[in-house]
């Protein structure tokens, strides 16, 4: 297993290299650079912009630029954000906790709801409640995340005033206190619900169907023939089997969150990486843009890796020695 | 006249009807089956695929798929208890402890995500208050008893790490863990290779003798029946067509179906140019004729009445019952082609 | 006892000879028995037809800004009111459907074509071909879809014009999943003995792929198509909502919805954003139902 | 033996090793020696039965002979012509003479095709110029011959029972009037009653069309019923090959002996037989034992067995065995 | 400035926020309380006036930093932290207020200003302000590392300093960098590290009425009253500056979650209708225009090298101008919070020419427009409803506009094209992503012919950077000797001396010229709008921005 893991991890390296090349060239091919559009007679002048272009190395040959970028990158120097005028790594360090927090809470919602609904529906398929859950899921699957976000703000923030519509924390609180954490939680609930809802429906449906499938398996019949109580059959025998694929989804959830964060964070003005990406996109903040694009790809790689490894770990059938 | 010593029977099935819901209608997959199992005896059940062998055994276990299948009529009396009336919880006390069952597919009958040890322990925990150490000790003994070497290691293994034969041994260990009075073996060797099948048959016979269990042995292999059973039930399309002791059945099969079945199987010890064939197939549940002999449309000896009169199981000789109009009191002369 | 075996007797079994039905016909019949799917199909067809016929249904100019008619609530003249540019919402809804469905259909088609070709070539030939193609597919799949659609969209701006840019970009980035799916389906289908049989009776590779493999893979592909179709419509609208989709001057449901980013519209003019939101949700819903219907109808258990 | 003159098919030391790939770069990390040195010959009009336990390489042998797989080593001769490594058009031509009946009547028919097309496909492949009415007539004849109703032509596989499907498969195999038919467990998926129909049909067809069969099965009694000679396979090798009488009455190889004694016998009602019960399971072909493949389970194994791999040797006329016990030279060495 | 509404808004206010008007305010405003001030786009978080780049950062900074000079409602410089005197517009003597304290309690001295100027002139300095220091004598040498200090700075005592510029200019005062930088606080930080330093990001230092509390980067900033503020302790205890999403603005105002927030013109009507909120408008300093490309600029040679004749005909431009209904357009897309202008100077600027002095007012008059086109020979010769050019060839106006997520951009651009279509000029619209857009315009890329833009001006009225023919940002590539001459004259001390009126006269002449020559079509200037909760008192806005925040208070 260890050997397999190491090999699997090493295999990421060439992928990362290729992705970095692609990211670099895409960034290069993008129109303009970070300084175009910075024309403002009050704040800067053409000489300043030309000087910055030279200084930022925009006029060097391509391979030099790539080499400089990638070597710096490997050493943890992601460059300086053109928009925020600060090291990208610091910028990301500021935003990352928010995105992680949002991701974790939304995953929590996803799994919590999916388990509650999926298990119930799977245990009692074709009942009224199962149909209700199914109907609800169909609807959830059909509502694009951004529309859900817009509805949520409209309803919960504007009309009902239950939740804030933007930000990640109440400024007046000191960092680290209980109130501060509560406030963070309070701010994250709505976006996390929206983001979490994306996965909930499909996971619920998956769990339900898998439980139904599994409950018709031979080993369930065996368990019954042993005189195992029904509750134990569901909570142990069936659930354990159904949870395995679900756990491996955890890896893919990272991908979902990357894509989802882009939208949710923007809608809820939640200062995380997704929002940062769109801002850097709009402002041609290439160092940030490239770092984030590479980082997101890296996350996807990691997500797939985790999915693979988890699969090997949780499923005894394919556990590799 | 039929039941000579019904008081002694460990299991008595009377007129069992098991029905399935198919597209909103009920169909009997087992239709009026009656038989007894005496203590310490092995009863073989043979018949083509789809004739209701499994459904019958699941009915006894109370394991018909809920909502789709149910026992629609008749009685199942085990050890004086009417199983068909028992609620699930009470049934759970009996399953695995007094009646246990092993299945055809050793590959899928074990839960892939639990260790062998865990699954074996479970049956003990289901029925006894027993400490973990004791349980482990017990299961190692059990595995030993079914001829698994190095049981200490096996209990930590997962099912996929075992071969088919080993798994079937584990299933047997599981089934005999609580020393049940009755074991239902539903085609326990069909999926195995001949050499492994021989091992398992040997093992079952051994255990049966040691524990003085009764076994209902379901198979479609007449050879297996001949070698390991005391009595045989031949089923066709949800009904019993013939019932006899092994010796009688193999020496003088009476029902045309039984005869054809025997003739259709090539045998090692004799050479025939041509095998018997039974034309057609077992009718599917929904196409089952409601009156008449269900074999009539495939029977080379079928008569006009066969499609009108439902034959009853009648004792033809002692310990040999058959359900066929050919053996009814007024034997009609004329044979009717279909 | 002599039993005369009767070989010449044909096996009509107990069933009456039935009109023979191809698997497709069975699937079709099963599909049309599914009420939800049929209703969805009707809805989707209606939306598609209305969108296609938009120029004949309404005479209003979709792009023209009408300064005098801005932000009017629904009335008999403007059934769904007008937006902040004075354009008739109903008209835009119809035209928006054209664009959204066009993007959905074309992206789905391109993705399916690319994915199926790559997947079936990799799956059928195996070996290094498979290796190379699948590494490439993995590589493509490592790009977070939305992120790279946005980036690529910016890179190619001006190279390809208008809606086709988005379609191109989405198709380029979206085929990975299909390729994988088709490949694995081909691999499992290839294991079936009927493929061996086809080879052993002298079938040529193209014939085997085309006649034996693809029709059987098609069932999977069709189901996947519905999922993709819904996904692509959502992707288009989400990107347009974020401002990275089809050009703003082109009416699409996503572009219409992006009006909800203006607070006064979101709060006080629900007629501007609710209709596209609802139509979009219903469309996705109906596509999903149709997909489920097809999936059930094509369930191989029903004809294998 | 009906025709001892010249074998239709000869197989010499056939080997088929599948690579086992693993890891990210899918490197070869091992080999499954599915077939590891099979030698046999089949005469015209004869049926050679091949028995063995699951996974011992029967199907692989069949497929390698048909060149559906490219053998790793060895030689396949059809009517004296070496077809081990023919390719392209040549291979295509040769396939006409050899056809296969498959094990799984469900997986071996394309569910999307009409039965008429399935059966007619070989004809259309090889005689593209034939008129479609002609083909249709031929197919109708074939269907009739295997006992299928006329209207079967326009039906799809899913409308038939297992036995009928197997008949369709047989009709397809017959369509090109092949010289050799390899029947790979054609009845093991069928119920007893149906099984006998198919077996009888195969026998009739053999007589009618002078077919030669390689009949693969794991059921010894079925093989015996069908074959003139029988080869017993174990772990990729033939351990004994002889005519059916000898195999049953006088099996020599310990494995054959065990195999025969393991078959339940309906004639021995109530008797307690002296069964030879083998220990353990068949070893994995990925990791076969050294020496005689059977020595790990062999009740008569001696020390030598774990080191010496005995070749197939004629012990009695027409009976070849691969066992140290019958090989004087090996025993002494 | 380049940029969309959000960007233009509030720009040119680097010097704003602190008023000198101490006269306003009630006699006894309530003490204490917190107000929430919202900004609707995310600041970059550069809380250092010497480095900041966006208006939102300036908004955030406004509560805590002050300038030496301030501007009144006519954008005339007024003394604030310092007063000044000059004889010749070359050497100035600045006298600092005494007793002004930095937030850490140290006193402000002229050295802090010298420190600021030397920081900006330092070779390692990475901000955009060097142009504001460059004009001081010796700054160049210091910048090149040739001198230890800037020779033009002569410290007399802690409160007095003489500053000598490299030459006499009329705008030396408004141009020079006028913010001090706390030397004690910063001296240990090397200049190259300043931009990224924590003191810039999280712990800024100033002399203003509020000092910094908590900072949640990109999200919110907490300000605590500076009790030692030299103009008197603020009434409020706290100000929270919070970034909120544009779409949340009205909701937040309505439910009192924010007290003050800049409002987008399209939302003006909604805010006006709120009972708990006052809508405050004040003149802005930006204007929108439609530009034409008359040629190409060579950035190396600093001259216009190629000519583009397509829009050279003045009548064509005039016709296009008359075709636009500017009142209607402003009403529709800016909620009426703006007025048409006829020359490129916002009317609240002191140099702005009186509208009556401008010859043409270019009223909406499609008939006149058509007549002009007819006269110029643009006639529909092939009967397709659109005019061909005088040579009879197809004539299409290619109009470009930047795009963003804001859907109104497309509508307002489209509306312009419709005006032109109506007079028979076939117009095609191209929406382009902002940065690509400005890049294309700046580089005179193909396809850019007629373009939409906006400029915002600062306190310094000099329009040279945008209009002289040797300037990169003269985007239309308009070359006019008279214009160049006038712009030079207006800055020439020889010509105008220190006489403001004289200077204004020259600028008026220049505006008349641009009004007639129409190198661009001036569309409108916008008002700035603030939504202010009625519980907040003491807030006043003029063209220079808000009054000093220490006067703000919460009503009972
Ligand atoms: N879950 C079910 N739903 C509907 N019909 C069923 C179900 N299970 C069994 N049947 C039907 O009941 C009949 C008897 O099936 P059963 O499984 O008992 O046959 P069997 O004799 O055990 O066959 P085999 O030898 O193949 O195991 C068959 O016709 C079968 O189709
Ligand atoms: N394509 C393949 N790749 C790798 N291993 C294979 C492949 N085909 C067969 N094998 C392996 O080769 C061995 C022999 O397989 P084969 O199918 O020939 O056995 P068989 O005797 O026909 O068994 P059965 O009775 O189950 O059909 C098995 O261990 C199998 O797993
Ligand atoms: Mg069964
Ligand atoms: Mg096989």
TrEMBL record, chain A:
Record family assignment: Belongs to the binding-protein-dependent transport system permease family.
Subcellular location(s) per record: Cell membrane
Keywords, ordered alphabetically: Cell membrane, Membrane, Transmembrane, Transmembrane helix, Transport
Superkingdom as given in the UniProt entry: Bacteria
Gene3D superfamilies listed in its UniProt record: MetI-like
Organism lineage string: Bacteria, Bacillati, Bacillota, Bacilli, Bacillales
Gene Ontology BP annotations: transmembrane transport
The UniProt record lists the keyword Repeat: no
UniProt membrane topology term: Multi-pass membrane protein
Name under which the protein is recorded: Peptide ABC transporter permease
GO cellular component, one term: plasma membrane
Residue ranges of domain ABC transmembrane type-1 in the record: 96-307
Regions that span the bilayer: 9-30, 100-121, 133-156, 185-207, 243-268, 288-314
TrEMBL record, chain B:
GO molecular function terms noted in the UniProt entry: ATP binding; ATP hydrolysis activity
One annotated GO biological process: peptide transport
Pfam families: ABC_tran, oligo_HPY
Domain ABC transporter intervals: 11-262
Its membrane topology: Peripheral membrane protein
CDD domains per record: ABC_NikE_OppD_transporters (cd03257)
InterPro entries from the UniProt entry: AAA+_ATPase, ABC_Ni/Peptide_Import, ABC_transporter-like_ATP-bd, ABC_transporter-like_CS, Oligopep_ABC_C, P-loop_NTPase
Localization terms from the record: Cell membrane
Recorded superkingdom: Bacteria
Name this protein carries in UniProt: Peptide ABC transporter ATP-binding protein
Organismal lineage: Bacteria, Bacillati, Bacillota, Bacilli, Bacillales
TrEMBL record, chain C:
Biological process (GO), any one: transmembrane transport
GO cellular component: plasma membrane
Coiled coil: none
Database matches in PROSITE patterns: ABC_TM1
Annotated spans, Disordered: 1-21
Ranges of residues in domain ABC transmembrane type-1: 97-291
Record's keyword terms, sorted: Cell membrane, Membrane, Transmembrane, Transmembrane helix, Transport
Broad class of the protein's primary localization: membrane
Locations listed in the record: Cell membrane
The keyword Transmembrane appears for this protein: yes
Transmembrane segments: 36-57, 101-127, 139-157, 163-182, 213-235, 271-291
Membrane-topology descriptor: Multi-pass membrane protein
Assigned protein family: Belongs to the binding-protein-dependent transport system permease family.
Name of this protein: Peptide ABC transporter permease
Originating organism: Pontibacillus litoralis JSM 072002
TrEMBL record, chain D:
Protein name: Peptide ABC transporter substrate-binding protein
Keyword Nucleotide-binding: yes
Organism the protein comes from: Pontibacillus litoralis JSM 072002
Key words, A-Z: ATP-binding, Nucleotide-binding, Transport
UniProt cross-references to SMART domains, sorted A to Z: AAA
Pfam families the UniProt entry points to: ABC_tran, oligo_HPY
Gene Ontology process terms (BP): peptide transport; transmembrane transport
Ranges for domain ABC transporter: 9-260
InterPro entries in the record: AAA+_ATPase, ABC_transp_ATP-bind, ABC_transporter-like_ATP-bd, ABC_transporter-like_CS, Oligopep_ABC_C, P-loop_NTPase
Similarity comment: Belongs to the ABC transporter superfamily.
Record-level Gene Ontology MF annotations: ATP binding; ATP hydrolysis activity
